[in-house]
Amino acid sequence: MTYISKIGLCLFLSGTLAIASNSILEKKSDLIQNGKTIGFVQILTPVEIIKSNKENSVIKIKGFRLENYPQMIVRDIKRKELYAEFKDETIANNSFKILKTYEDEYGEVWHEVEGEFTVSTNTLTKDKDNLYLNAKKTYERTCSMCHHLPLSTAYTVNQWPQQIESMMEQVALDDTTKNLIIKYLQQNAADAK
Known about the structure:
Strand content: 25-35%
Structural class: alpha+beta
Order of helices and strands: HEEEEEEEHEEEHHH
Helix content: 25-40%
Radius of gyration: 19 Å
Number of domains: 2
Number of helices: 5
């Protein structure tokens, strides 16, 4: 490869990287495709911004889904942290490109998938630390009123949603706050890494 070709490649890659950007959802957001709401993406879900303006952003979501239940996109095969959910199976099947197929230890077939969708730009942030701090403070304040506060590593990614749901009779949290706490705990769970 010539020196000029290398410079051209570097300029191309730097331009590509400027367009693609990593971000997360700071609140649950509708997923829009062809002007229609087809599902939602959950708070604290990592996404790649493809293009953006003041109102809308095109994002790429990567995750895993069961072949026989394609409506739900999760973090990976073992850790079922919810990333996105779709209104129906047909929409889900038509919205994602299958990258790879896997079989888990129970014989279930999983697809590693990616898809591009439109979301409201005001639902995206790069400030994960601020969301984490808010979730941590809310978790500590709310959940230590009645009992000893378990560490985030006390449960697994798959166990945390049930633990928080079981407390909802004692504590009234709006869905956004509850989901923020669940996702924070899942991303810091015993098996999160």
